[in-house]
Amino acid sequence: MSEFRHNLITNEWVVVATERAKRPSDFVGSKTPKTIPEYSESCPFCPGNEQHTPPALYRYPAEGDWNIRVVPNKFAALKPTDSLERVQEGRYLKFGGFGYADVIIEAPLHNQTLGTLSEDNVLHVMKAYKARYDSLSADERVDLVTIFRNHGVRAGTSLEHPHSQIIATPLVPLRVRAQLEETQRYSANLGSCVFCDIMKEEKKDGRRLVLETDYFVAFEPYASRSPFETWILPKRHQSVFGAIHLNELKDMAHSVRTILGKMHRGLNNPDYNLILQSAPTKEEDVDYYHWYIRIIPRLTTPAGFEMGTGIYITTAYPEETADFLRKVKN
Amino acid sequence: MSEFRHNLITNEWVVVATERAKRPSDFVGSKTPKTIPEYSESCPFCPGNEQHTPPALYRYPAEGDWNIRVVPNKFAALKPTDSLERVQEGRYLKFGGFGYADVIIEAPLHNQTLGTLSEDNVLHVMKAYKARYDSLSADERVDLVTIFRNHGVRAGTSLEHPHSQIIATPLVPLRVRAQLEETQRYSANLGSCVFCDIMKEEKKDGRRLVLETDYFVAFEPYASRSPFETWILPKRHQSVFGAIHLNELKDMAHSVRTILGKMHRGLNNPDYNLILQSAPTKEEDVDYYHWYIRIIPRLTTPAGFEMGTGIYITTAYPEETADFLRKVKN
To answer: Which residues of B, range 43-82, sit inside 8 Å of A by Cβ?
Structure first.
C-alpha cells in the first residue's frame, strides 16, 4: 500500500509509492566513472586560467597559490547594477535583473568534489560561504541569499570543476515566503520551532537518522520528495546561515563532507543539488525559521504530475535509504 | 540586461537572463531521430498485448479493434481502496495512498505522438480525457483530477507508446491552493478573471501569441519558466475541464495537435510535459479560476537555485520563441 506523507515545513504532501518501490541499492549508479583529469587546459576555473574569470571577490589563502577563489559569475543572471523600479508592461510587472551571482571555486584540482576533498579544504569552502553570505546580506537591497551547488549534468551543470554558487535576490520569493508562513503558524500553535521539533523527533525515532555530530544532525526527511533526499540541520536554533559560529562551521564541513562522501561512494558519484535554505536577510533572528541544507540526488525525474500538483511521488522509503547511507563507510 | 518578470497566476517571479540568452533556434534538438517501429512486441500498450494491462475502463470504438484504451495504471501510485484516515506517526501525519491512476493509450500505433496523430484521433483522446474526468470527479472523495502527458526520457517516461495519464487525488495540494488564492485575490481586486484578462492582453499585444481558434488561444506566457513553455486556454470562462462543450473539444484537439506538431517539427521532437490544470472538482463554477493546458518542453534543467527559491531562470524571451513557433508550418 502506498501512503501520503505530510511535510511539516512546506505543508505539502508526498506519495511513497510501494507498487513501484525500489531497494536503496537499485539507485546505485552503474555508469563506469569517467576518468577526469586533475587539470583541464580549457577549464576557466583551473589554476593558470584566472584571466577567464572576473577578478576574485575573495580568495584563500590571501597570498600565494589559491585554494579557494570566489568570483562573480561571468554569465551572471543578475547584476547589482540593474534597477529595482517596477515597470508595468501591459497588465504585467517587470523590473531589472538586480542581484548578485557569485561562483565559489572550491579547489585548484579539477577532478575533486566536496565529498572527496579534505575536511580542511571543505572547511575553507564553508568559510567562503560565510564570508560571502555576510558580505551580500549587508546590501540593504538584498532580501535573500541562496547558496547552492549543482553537481553533474542531471543536476543542471556542465562544468566539472568543483564549484558552488551564491545568488542574492532583491525579493523573498513566494516559495520561501510560504515556508515562513507555515513555520510561523506552527510556532504560534505549538510554541516551538518546527525544525527543532523535527530534530527531536528524528533523534528519538532514529530510523531516518544518518549522522549526528556535536552541532549538526543529518537525516532523510519523513516526507522525502525523492530517493536519498537528505537534510543537514544545525542543532542550535538560528534562522539565518550568517548566525553560525566558527566551531559550528567546522562541524558543518565535517557533516557536509561525510554525507556527500557517503553518497559519492555508496551511490557511485550521483548527480545532485545541494541547497542552503536560510531565512531572508531581514528576518535574521526569528524563532520559527531555522536554516538547513537540503541535498537532492537527481536519481529520478519529476514529471507532469509533480509539476502540476507539487505532490512528489517517490519510490523509496526514507527509513531504508537512511539505513543504506548509515552503512556506507565514512 | 536581465529582467525579473511577474507571473500573475502564481505570484512568482522568473528571471529572463540575457547574458546567456539563446536564439530560439539554439533549442532545436540535434539528435538523429531514432527510428521507432509501428509495433513493438514487448510493449504492453501495443495491440495484442492487452493481457499485460488491467481491463479497460473505457475504449473507443466500443466494439472491434480499439483506437483508444483507458486502463488503470498497473503500477499505480494511488488506488481507490486505500484509507483516507489520517494516522499520526510521531510528530508527522500520513494516510493511505487513496486515489485513481489511469493510463490513456492514445493509439494502436507504437511510434506516434499527439503531434503526429490525425486530428480525428486526437479528438478521441480529448473525449477520453473528458469521459474519465467526469467519471473520476463524480467520486465524492476525489478533490482534484490532474491530466498530464510525459513525452520522452527527460520528461520522466521511458514508455514510447503514445499515452497520457490521469491521477485523481483526495486533496487539493498546496501548489494548486496557492494559485486559487492568488487568482481569487486578483478577482476580488479587479473584478475579473485573471486568465480572461491575460487572454485579452495577449491578443492585444500579439507578440507572444502562437495560435487563435474559435474557442482557444495559445501563447507563450509573459513569465515563462523555461524556453518554449506554452499555454492553451479556452476562451469561454470555465473553471474545470469537465465544463467543456463538444464543439470546444474539437477545437481543443486542433489546438493541442497544432502546438505539439509545431514543437515536434520545429524543435526536432523535444521531450515535454503537458499538464491540464483544472480547478478542484468541488470548485467547478468559480469565477476566478480558469482551466488551462501548460506544455513545458524539457530543454533546460532546473537546478539548485530554482529548487531552493522557485525563481526560474530562463534563457529565451517568450516573444522570440512565440515568433519561432508561429513560423513553423502547421
So the answer is: 75-79, 82
Interatomic CA distance for residues A315 and B307, integer angstroms: 20
Catalytic residues of B: 163
Amino acid A103: pLDDT: 98
pTM over 0.80: yes
Query: How many angstroms separate the CA of residue B63 from the nearest CA in chain A?
Result: 32
Contacting residues of B for A309, CB less than 8 Å apart: 144, 146, 167, 169, 173, 175-176
Closest to A106 (Cα-Cα) out of A253, A248, A230, A246 = A253
* B17 with A150: Cβ contact below 8 A: no
pLDDT tens digits, A16-31: 997 777 888 889 987 6
Question: Looking at CA atoms only, how far is residue A247 from chain B in angstroms?
Answer: 26
- Report the distance separating Cα A125 and Cα A117, nearest Å: 10
Low-confidence ranges of chain B (pLDDT < 70): 31-34
Q: Determine the angle formed by the axes of helices B119-137 and B246-266, rounding to 10 degrees.
A: 120
Task: Give the domains, in start order, of chain B with CATH numbers.
Answer: 3-327 (3.30.428.10)
Q: pLDDT tens digits, residue range A230-251?
A: 999 999 999 999 999 999 999 9
Cell of B283: 470548485
- A157 close to B (CB below 8 A): yes
HEC readout, A200-245: HHHHHHCCCEEEECCCEEEECCCCCCCCCCEEEEECCCCCCHHHCC
Instruction: Please tell me the distance from the alpha carbon of residue A53 to that of residue A59, in angstroms, as a whole number.
Output: 13
User: Shortest CB distance from A303 goes to which of B20, B155, B176?
Assistant: B155
Q: Is the pLDDT of residue A187 over 80?
A: yes
User: pLDDT tens for residues A113-137?
Assistant: 999 999 999 999 999 999 999 999 9
Mean pLDDT of chain B, nearest integer: 95
